[in-house]
Description:
Blueprint: E1 3-5, E2 11-14, H1 17-24, E3 42-43, E4 56-62, H2 81-89, E5 91-97, H3 103-112, H4 135-142, H5 155-161, E6 165-170, E7 189-193, E8 212-214, E9 217-218, H6 225-238, E10 246-251, H7 280-303, E11 310-316, H8 338-341, E12 342-348, E13 357-359, E14 363-364, H9 365-375, H10 391-396, E15 406-412, E16 415-422, E17 425-432, E18 435-442, H11 458-474
Parallel strand pairs: 4-10, 4-11, 5-13, 5-14, 6-7, 6-10
Antiparallel strand pairs: 1-2, 2-3, 5-12, 7-8, 8-9, 11-12, 15-16, 16-17, 17-18
Helix pairs in contact: 1-11, 3-9, 6-7
Amino acid sequence: xxxxxxxxxxxxxxxxxxxxxxxxxxxxxxxxxxxxxxxxxxxxxxxxxxxxxxxxxxxxxxxxxxxxxxxxxxxxxxxxxxxxxxxxxxxxxxxxxxxxxxxxxxxxxxxxxxxxxxxxxxxxxxxxxxxxxxxxxxxxxxxxxxxxxxxxxxxxxxxxxxxxxxxxxxxxxxxxxxxxxxxxxxxxxxxxxxxxxxxxxxxxxxxxxxxxxxxxxxxxxxxxxxxxxxxxxxxxxxxxxxxxxxxxxxxxxxxxxxxxxxxxxxxxxxxxxxxxxxxxxxxxxxxxxxxxxxxxxxxxxxxxxxxxxxxxxxxxxxxxxxxxxxxxxxxxxxxxxxxxxxxxxxxxxxxxxxxxxxxxxxxxxxxxxxxxxxxxxxxxxxxxxxxxxxxxxxxxxxxxxxxxxxxxxxxxxxxxxxxxxxxxxxxxxxxxxxxxxxxxxxxxxxxxxxxxxxxxxxxxxxxxxxxxxxxxxxxxxxx
Length: 479
């Protein structure tokens, strides 16, 4: 067990091997360690809306959006007034990390509030046609078990038990099989696409398989995928007459490939060699259309007088690729340099979290999940725990979170990336077949990861490598 969050009183306790390990290495001049293990925990501050009902929750996820692709993150060429306004009204995170450098892993971590490695088979995006892309995923695909298991405790199932009405719109990418579809996870209604690279106009995967679903059934609709997602999300908000609070999950496919601008419908089939090609101008149009749609969702909340009692969360599932912009960071989607995992993120919760602030401390995707559970005081299922923390309590107090190691592992074929960040130090191990490379960066002095200090800091490297190995043993899946 890594971290336990007691949803009744907000206590966060770090347990198990981590506490003992850090006690052994405390002599190293790294950071001031949080006292862990059996000594105690961290008391999270109350982030509940004072005296109010349970908040509505709207979670908006962009697909492959780079850290530097929004105006409020310094983008010089893409206009994103709606997300910029959301940031001005809420909290903008500058060190929000995706749990993985690809779609499926981060989504798994968000829904389970735990490291995706605990589930098994989901450390890489599920391939077109339900294909596993590394050994464990290939084995599970052969068994028709590649996906997020419904028996895994998820944030959505906890919210459903707490009395929420759950609706999902957009990209799923957590399993193609019937037993992995959204309605198995507490969603009462679903509209969107199951796969990861759906044509924006024809709504098919690159192999031509139709991917647009309503609930459990394939459907056909006319329209640009981004607009279909927006339209359905807006309809859900405008027609929400249920006395229960609403949890609305809006997962855009934009700006993931194929790079197709609105109003530029290509003939089908699109040649395979053209499906991943795209100019910055096309990418710009895709992001701006998504921003326009997010503005319509925010306007719908305002029209229904739901703004004050609605928690809105926006983030990207991983760094940008192709024509995306991760500047100033190194790398992009698929890798564990900062450009692959550091993503834009914005949270607005009027009256509970401050507005117009920037939170400059490290945060993980699954911290947002744990914060949701804490915000609604939803009890976790017996035997379940969060690997993240209630980050909103620290945001509200404008304080840094407790020092803790953050871990990543990404697999595809014979290539494996591993990384751990502790304080300002980040260690990366990259294995590609027989080739092995190690990196050590001090992010405080070198946020763009240009100076590899691996050879100069052997003791620190050994400590971080050992910490990573211990974490891998802890999160090993039983599937």
